[in-house]
Description:
mainly alpha; two-stranded antiparallel sheet; globular
Amino acid sequence: MRGVPSSRTDLLRWQFDLVWSLFEFHLERLEPADFLWEPGELCWTMRQHGEQVWVADWADTEPDPIPVPTIGWLTWHIGWWWSVAIDHARHRPPRERTEIAWPGPGAPTVEWLRGLRADWLGVLDGLDDAALDADSAYPWPADAGLTVAHQVSWVDAELMKNVAEIGQLRMLRAARG
């Protein structure tokens, strides 16, 4: 897309594509060992229970000090909030945090995230300016008075933040050898 976007939807799609291109830069370079690397003593990560079940470290109230998340935890976190955003956008009952399964370190998680991207593009492709003006109750309270356009902007912002965190962790691990 060049020049002035023809609609708000086009602008939001451009922004999402930009954020995704930054993410893809890191996704292409992630090694399986990157996902569970802990940069310090106080970390939130993914813990394996049984052969195929991964569980995220979690606290209902944010601890002080805040643990540093691993790339694995961040990718699960993206999968969680993005899955629920897609549920809301498609008017499906939103899943609980504990229902979002992390595929594990490496290629399965990268493919899962790329699948969520494809699902989100389906959501974006179905929006027009009228749909963007509809009320949205995610990720904020229903009475917040915010719209689908706010939700789409929030997805871009949240993804950009998480991508930056993943990038920093990946580069820090590489720098430390």
